[in-house]
Amino acid sequence: MQRRCFGRRMVVLSTLIFVAAAASEARAGLIIDPTFNANMNAQQQAAVNYVIGEYEHLYTNNITLNISFQMGNTGLGESNSTVEGSFTYAQIKAALAAEALANPGDSIKQTVVANLPATNPAPTNNYWLSTADAKALGLDNYGGSDGAVTFSNAVSYTYDPNNRGVAGEYDFIGVAEHEISEVMGRIPGLGSDYGNGASYDLNDLYRFTNGVRNFTVDQSDPPGVYLSINGGSTNVGNFYSQGDDNDDYRGDNPTDPYNQFAGEGQAHALTTADMINMDAIGYNLAQATPEPASLTLLATGCFAFGGLRVVRRRRRAIA
């Protein structure tokens, strides 16, 4: 297994012993195992643990994700996701079909599978996934680091989950929700070359412009690119289609933590669109979520894998 690092290498200085009480019980289901750098104080660690608790209770996949956290010189936040490949479209589609079969009450998964094309729609049949997402889909059981998250050491944050909209401060929990979701697999491929030619990601399959799948980078807006799980018929939310983070959201709902930009004084909260997006890439929602057609729209088994793993770097900007 070959590994390469794109961007900064991160040195882990200390390991977290305390985890959120609600997530510490021995149980089946999603576990996010954090490793904290010594430059993160107790308040920052507690805020990360709060977000870990959110994701562990939202999604039930019986997997463990290993993510390290630190403060550093970056924008609001930065994620480095370990990605692996390559997979074929047939493998991706079969994994999604198996998930739908195992979760018959999940209308999101049923809609996704019903609207997948019979043959590969991307320009190449070369798919790369985050190691976290590969585990969620049952395509791998990688035991190393799934990624790292860096928070800015130069901006003022609010850390209190009960007081997230503070004038002059950024919502640290919202930034953590954003960056952790990227390590989990909410990232674009869109032709990225990890050493074997142009590649695509599972989330690319849900990008549409005027009802047609859109695999391009830096799409002008209008017409823009939107998230859809039913073949482009329903717009779940608009992507920010320019720049590096093409799978972040445009910001029509200004308090969605998956937006490309965030501003001071904004209290963010995970939305139905966020949960649909994560469910569609392989995470099993603990509770049923309505099909996209019924939404109030926002702004509108397992087999062994032996491939390559690299680290993909993404930054979140300040508005």
- Which outline best applies? globular
Beta-strand segment tally:
16
**Unreliable segments (pLDDT under 50, ≥5 consecutive)?**
1-26, 289-306
What string gives the helices and strands in order? Answer: EEHEEHHEHEEEHEEEEEEEHE
Count of DSSP-assigned helices: 6
Percent strand: 15-25%
Structural class label: alpha/beta
Quick summary:
This protein is an alpha/beta fold. The protein has one domain (3-318).
Can you describe what's shown?
By secondary structure, the protein is an alpha/beta fold. The protein has one domain. It is 21% helix and 22% strand. It is built from six helices and 16 strands. The chain has helices at residues 42-58, 89-102, 107-114, 131-136, 172-184, 272-280; strands spanning 3-5, 31-36, 64-72, 77-87, 127-130, 147-152, 157-158, 170-171, 192-193, 198-199, 207-209, 212-213, 225-227, 237-239, 261-262, 308-318. Strands 1, 2, 3, 4, 5, 6, 15 and 16 form an eight-stranded mixed beta sheet that branches. Strands 12-11-13-14 form a four-stranded antiparallel beta sheet, with no helix packed on it. Strand 9 (192-193) and strand 10 (198-199) form a beta hairpin. It is globular, with a radius of gyration of 18 Å. Residues 1-26 and 289-306 have low confidence and may be disordered.
